[in-house]
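Shape matters. As here.
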Amino acid sequence: MAQYEEFTIDQGADVAIEIHVVDAQNAVKSLANYAVAAKMKKTYNSDSSDTQAFNAVVASPATDGVVTLSLTNTQTNALKAGRYVYDVEISFSDSAGATIVERILEGKIQVTPSVTK
């Protein structure tokens, strides 16, 4: 089950969120051969015009279990102020070639409006 976290993002600012991934025993999870994806949208049922994908990467070295999500100031400036939902998923291909997906984080994001644009 994914962890739940709320964030605040300032419209028009650069954003970087670092996630430290651990396993069920609270040990660092190696993310070697994993991919990561993360998106935020106004509601769970929003269409793609309301969706903002994060620049999501597994930090090097992957054995440290760190994922970095980021948005540029141009990307956050384009967001409408208000509340969003988001989630973060990691995935890998098993030995049979099937893709295994795990949601590691989910929650809400508050985008605060910018006066200086």
